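Hey, I'm writing a tutorial for new members on how sequence and structure tokens pair up, and I'd like a real worked example in the thread rather than a made-up one. If someone can provide the structure for the chain below, I'll link this post from the tutorial.
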Amino acid sequence: MMHDGTLLHIPNYVFENGTSKDKFFLVLKEIDDLQLIVSLPSSIEYFPTGTIVNHGCVDLHQAQQTTYCFKAGNIIDSTTSFSFSKDTYLHGCWLKDIDKNLFFQKYPVQDFHYVIKGIIDPPELKEIINCFKNSSSVKQRIKKLL
């Protein structure tokens, strides 16, 4: 069962272009047991030179970019004490909705195809969702689902 805020690690995540690699996978919202709104956290920074990045929402209106930053070592699940080892980013332009059944066909076995690393603490999850709902760079369709 996926809850809003569930953070997974998928050892062999397959991208749309067919390539694969170890990847974190964050379920932002589950909709009607059918769809998941997800983000693929990345340690790659995509900010204009000189941007000061703190933990939380980074909304750059001029650059049409909204990113949520998890600073390295900042605990995001107080139950498991999980934190990322590097600064990690959720890029608003990469949010997408996926078919939940297709996801579980591709990754059917917990602790083999994917590992649940934790569930983002509710106040932090609310901040993430508000960050993207108020963003000009997130697709309108995704904002409505959030």
